[in-house]
Amino acid sequence: MDIVIPEYYIDETDERTVIYQIQIITKNRKWVIQKRYSQFEELRKRLKEYFPTLVPQMPKKKFTTFFTGKSSDELEERRNGLQTFVQQLIQHDAIINSSIFKEFIELKISELQMQERSHFLHGIRDFGFMNEMLFIVNSEMNALTRVDAYIQNMKLPWESEKGDLATKPVGCLECWIKDIRVWVKTYNSQAISLHIKDNVVLVGLDSGSINYLVIKGQKFQESFEIEQHNNRVMGIYLYGEQLHSISKDKTYRVLDMKQEILAVDYNHEHEFTCLRFCEQRECAFVGDRCGSIFIFKRGVPLVAVQTKLQFVRDIYIDNTRNYLLAVGYQQGNVIVFDVKSKGNEQQCKEVTSFKNKNNSRCLVWSASRGEVFIGNDEGYLTIWNAKDCSPIREFKIHTDAITRMCWDEQNHVLSSASKDKTMKIIKIPKKWDDQIFQQIQSQDLKQWHK
């Protein structure tokens, strides 16, 4: 590929605006586009989010010429500087193959087939499936509304018990079958996390409690609360008779449901932020707010993996390939670890890393495609190619934070949920048809191992 900017012209409708003619030449075609300086600035800004060390400087604006007009020499200097800028960009294959760059050069990009599900009561925190049932955990996102609800739900000394149902709920568990809401379980506290196991649904609450529901048919037959923590439950998992959970109260706890005793009570100096459990390994993987990932084996800490992440926001485990993927919230950095085979987790080591958009919240991984899907606070979905750690697609799929995603490997379908009270069901094309640069790779190349 080659890109040149042979000329420019002054916009007829606005003499202060300069339009640059850009020629793009590839092996199979050649085309011309027109861009303003501000569009080059926007391109650089977006690319910097993903390639902070690769994106070069642009020729600076000279604001002294705003009222006096730009001289021919100044315009020619800028044209040459912009040409140098784009020619430096195309030296990097990852930038060429990014959807951001393709949009700039007006190359047609594969579109997503996407369906929306809405009419949920609050912003979605988590979701999961049980047979034909979809369970949605959601919370009131407006702080003032929550305060008002807490006051209304408060039991005064002279009042009788209000029961466990919220007068004005700030959290809910919704059960849907297709497009029909079958039932709703309301809470006086925000509903934060969800885990589904067989016919049991567990909901972690902002109060620190865990709601345990037994589902029979399409309804819950039994419901009771477990006072597991004294602050927000960030993650829960039921393995056999043991209930694993983490909280902002800085504890990782395991409750033996059969004996009704606390089998593990691990106290930490920082808040725990995410929990993933691998049954094949019998290990819990727990992230904290200061960049550490703890691996617990039957409740015993095996190793604390120190990452470069400031705040481990989500973890994904690929037990087949022994990968652990972790994403940090503030800077959006993603780190991939080789956690070794079962029983050798202490030898866990970093394999690679890359940077996503800031304020990244959740990620999933497709082993068959070799792609990582990451959602962030602004509603952006970024799809990364694992082979060269490049962002091949960026889509704005929600209007608020993406809080949870689920990947269907067999059907290549991505489900996402957001604080904007919607879910998106996205059909990902099995092959991207607009890649303009193909790397030569050996047939036995694995994702991150040379």
Explain the overall architecture.
The chain is mainly β and 450 residues long. The chain has helices at 37-50, 72-89, 93-96, 99-104, 143-153, and strands at 2-10, 18-25, 30-36, 113-117, 123-130, 133-139, 171-177, 180-187, 191-197, 200-205, 209-216, 219-227, 233-239, 242-247, 251-256, 261-267, 272-278, 283-288, 292-297, 300-306, 312-318, 323-328, 333-338, 349-355, 360-366, 371-376, 380-385, 390-396, 402-408, 413-418, 423-427. A hairpin with a 4-residue loop joins β15 (251-256) and β16.
Average pLDDT metric: 89
Query: How many beta-strand elements?
Result: 31
Parts with pLDDT < 50 across at least 5 consecutive residues: 437-446
- Count of helical stretches: 5
Strand order of the largest sheet: 4-31-30-29
Separation of the first and last Cα atoms: 27 Å
Q: How helical, in percent, are the residues?
A: 10-25%
Question: Structural class, please?
Answer: mainly beta
Bulk shape: elongated
Radius of gyration (Å): 26 Å
Please outline the major beta sheet: 4 strands, antiparallel
β-strand amount: over 45%
